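GNAT family N-acetyltransferase, pasting as requested.
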Amino acid sequence: MLQHYKHKSVQRSDLPKIVDLLAACEVIDQLETNRSLAELQRGFDNKPPNTIRNDYLWETPDGQAIGYGLYGIRHQPESQEAYPSVKVHPDYRKDNLEAEILTWCEQEIHKLCPNATIWVSARSDRTHYTTLYENQGYQPVRWFHRMSRSLRAPIPEPQLPAGFTTRTCQGDTDVEPWVEMFNQTFIDHWQFHPRPIENRRHEIQQPDYQADLDWIAVAPNGTFAAFCDAYIFHERNARTHRKEGWITGLGTRRGFRHQGLGRAMLLLGLQQLKATGMETALLDVDSENPNQAQKLYESMGFETIQTSVSYTKTL
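Structure tokens follow.
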């Protein structure tokens, strides 16, 4: 069916059409993956280093946007991984366009990276998408939980080990020690790839970077020992009429674990979100996290509200 529609590489002027397409999909999908024009523009204008990203739009002959396909390819020293994503207007899904656009993305990925491993994810309770991926030969390999905690409930005061201090990150000055800490923290985690310094530098230079929610714990000898990154999606909160904040990163460096730093930094992050007026904290966690992160979150009052499946496929 794709031959009946025209497709093109997305230009910045096409983004309003994509906003409308994602909004139409959201009515049916209820995944909260629709985006404002400002959010799409930021992503379009600020692509991260070490990554290829290509976006394509499918239209009817009269110019109506009915399909959106994109893929990103991350170049790692030891591997190449690709991440396609497909959205099709609900009125056109009966024609199998999603599968055809996904196949098209896979073929484009293969031209650029013949040995790439492809990853997609879907909510476990959204059978439309789990069936799409499984019918395309993707295999489920990992499950991730989204957890929620009310910020109206009491938040205990963080207790740091003796001599440790906390502070927010200080821009470019902290980039290299922060990256060293991050890589030492997650080196034993599933699908870990070292974070390049230039990617961290790119992250803190973004217009929506929230420096006041980016915290680190510093050991008595000055070593960055743990961190908690929080984030507020203001546009999403405006759309949903909710006051939600996210714990987007939490970790303790190897050599500093089992001292209560993870718990303390999580409590600090929750306090910071509450201080901004947020009412609910959210986070995502690997169900097989090697450091028992889910148990920590549950002990702090978080509850699982949904589960996502990570699928993979080798071309």
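Note for the archive: The chain has nine helices and twelve strands.
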